[in-house]
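# step 3/5: fold
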Amino acid sequence: MDEKKNNKINIDLSEEIAEGNYSNLAIITHSHSEFIIDFVKMMPGIPKAKVKSRIILTPEHAKRLTKALTDNIRKFESMHGPIKESKDGGIPPFTMGGPTAEA
């Protein structure tokens, strides 16, 4: 039990960060040493989208994040049913000069 107690991380969450940012598009690029995820807010009728947050991860952490998201999606769907995906495939990604994926 003491070992688990020592592994706890004390995390400070400010009010500003706790409010969060809405995002309905994620643009993912990567290099040999990092993954960059830009969380974008697109509004209907407004041609210019805005990056609301950029997160830079090591490849190792990106893989851990993928596993954690997969696990959480599985748990969510077991409680609430399958998450429906749009039939049009979503919004096409724009690139910033590197390999790109969209989520």
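# step 4/5: annotate
Residues 59-80 form the longest helix (22 residues).
# step 5/5: archive (pending)
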